[in-house]
Amino acid sequence: MSEVVLETNLEGVELLKRGKVRDVYDLDDKLLIVATDRISAFDVILPNGIPGKGEVLTQISLFWFEKTKNIIQNHIISGSMDDYPPPLKKFSKLLDKRSMLVKKTDPILIECIVRGYISGSGWVEYKQTGKICGIELPKNLKESQKLDEPIFTPSTKAETGHDQNITFEQMSKMIGYDLAAQIKKISLAIYNKASQYALGKGIIIADTKMEFGIYDGKLTLIDELITPDSSRFWLVSDYKEGQPQDSFDKQIVRDYLLTLDWNKTYPGPVLPGHIVDKTAKRYKEILEMLKR
């Protein structure tokens, strides 16, 4: 894997925005999305990154966009430097494997979350209310239990701070019922296809979040897709209902940070080498398992 990339600077190319992980560049009618090796936890970008993380995130997204393109069109133009505009060629060492050339869409500002298992914030909400995003669930579910059917649990997309869970009815009021229903149906179809494929590779996709936009009047799948940053991956061989699972995501980092006396505000603590190495290995392992 290449050296750690915490920030990109493509001289002569307009930086549109810098997110927690991705740097987005404006190419007039297209966008260039570059996944850095930054890692955030509790909404704070940590001082040191995870080597190769951006490459893994990009390659996993490209893999799933290709796998699901028969369900819905997506924003990918290319993930290959061969297809990039000439002004970007001189940055090939930086951009190769960690960037995607995509269509410029009008984003729908809702996180579209599908849960096949009860975990994370969904488990917390269920324990308090017996529901997730207004959906009544059976009584006496256990932590990490598989749900009878996957559920669609949207949230608002916050630029800063935490996203807020909303009901499907609230989502419908925000964007219209027909569009909300279409997004729900497609989100569930993508999750079902991906989770069945992953099970065959020994991986459980417990939940995942997707984003959509409108391109040329049509609903389009955008952003990243079913990566360790947007999903919970568990090993089938290690899965045990009724307890937290060992995840192939940022949980290693979160668990370490929870052992510290840190108030979850900027600047975050520097991660020790063994946590960085373990996290990097986890990210790489999930890509290898999916493509096996």
Tell me about this structure.
With about 290 residues, this protein is an alpha+beta fold. The chain has helices spanning about 55-65, 90-95, 120-130, 170-175, 175-200, 250-255, 275-290, and strands at about 15-20, 20-25, 30-35, 40, 45, 75-80, 100-105, 105, 110-115, 130, 135, 145-150, 155, 205-215, 220, 230-235. It has two domains: about 15-105, Phosphorylase Kinase, domain 1, CATH 3.30.200.20; about 105-260, D-amino Acid Aminotransferase, Chain A, domain 1, CATH 3.30.470.20. The relative contact order is 0.17. Strands 8, 9, 12, 13, 14, 15 and 16 form a seven-stranded antiparallel beta sheet that branches. β14 (about 205-215) and β15 form a beta hairpin. The model has no long low-confidence stretch (mean pLDDT about 95). The protein is built from seven helices and 16 strands. α1 (about 55-65) packs parallel to α7 and α4 (about 170-175) crosses α5. Its EC number is 6.3.2.6. InterPro entries: SAICAR_synt/ADE2_N, SAICAR_synth, SAICAR_synthetase_CS.
